[in-house]
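Quick start: read one record
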Amino acid sequence: MTPAEPPAAGSGGSAAVRPAPVGSPTAVGSAAAARQYVRDLVRERWRGPSGRADEQAVVDLLLVVSELVTNAIRHGGGLARFEVTPVAEGVRLDVHDHSGTVPPAAFGHGTFPQPNASGGFGWPLIIRLAREIHVERRPEGGKAISVLVPLV
């Protein structure tokens, strides 16, 4: 469970970086456990071109982690896989669940629901805070969501 070393500043990208899997769903069974793992990884391992990540960027990253993992648990039939990959520009998150249903909001414009709505804030937050958002159905069932959260 050792995270991959991110590329050195100015190394020309993330081609040498391999995924740093957190492990099986038993290793990360909650949004809190996922946030703690990502927080520790960023503190210990992430170095971007400008050095350490800005604290607000880390807060944004942890919010995206919470939303993706909570959605997998609450709406996706459970967390099937969770991977974190440090790259030069930030952190790539890969979250797999057991449901093949792709939420329509995943391809929305990031518009927040009406003030009195009882939910629906997760995907707009993800869309606003992450880049390179990909949602794909997995051949073995379920779906995979991959996002890049910039830290620079």
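The CA atoms of residues 99 and 142 lie 4 Å apart.
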